[in-house]
């Protein structure tokens, strides 16, 4: 065993091949993420996966790319409402919306598009239109 995790009253034993991913949107959490990332990031079994503005950017990449053109309206949207706006755009971008169940069929596209638009700021936090979901999906 290499570690353990406690969630509420349950204790989980981690084997060397196990990895724990913590998912976060950027939107209003930027300040908290900045504090977290200033700490020591040497835990090889734990990994933050941050999406900007939200998880739906990963779903977008599974179906489409070219976020600068298609999602340009997010740049002028207040940071605190970007996630809500992104979620609302789903139905206008893809018939039936950015369906997470169907996105798995397009994971290779998602990984490719994700990597193409990936960037971080000076605080190691993803910039707008970027997500680290490709790292988790590649691991899985």
Give me some keywords for this one.
globular; two-stranded antiparallel sheet; 140 residues; 5 strands; alpha+beta; three-stranded mixed β-sheet
* Backbone structural class: alpha+beta
Percentage of residues in DSSP E strands = 15-25%
In angstroms, what is the radius of gyration?
Answer: 16 Å
Main sheet summary: 3 strands, mixed
Main sheet strand line-up: 3-4-5
Helix residue percentage:
40-55%
Overall mean pLDDT: 88
Net shape: globular
Determine the N-to-C terminus distance: 20 Å
Q: Helix count, per DSSP? A: 8
Total number of β-strand segments?
A: 5
Could you list the spans in which at least 5 consecutive residues all have pLDDT below 50? none
The string of secondary-structure elements, in order, is EEEHEHHHHHHEH
3D structure, described in words:
With 140 residues, the chain is of the alpha+beta class. The protein contains 8 helices and 5 strands. The chain is 41% helix and 18% strand. It has a 3-stranded mixed sheet, covered by helices on one side. Strand 3, helix 1 and strand 4 form a beta-alpha-beta unit. The model has no long low-confidence stretch (mean pLDDT 88).
Write the layout of secondary structure elements.
Layout: E1 3-7, E2 10-14, E3 20-25, H1 30-38, E4 46-52, H2 56-63, H3 67-70, H4 73-76, H5 82-93, H6 100-103, H7 107-116, E5 130-131, H8 133-139
Parallel strand pairs: 3-4
Antiparallel strand pairs: 1-2, 4-5
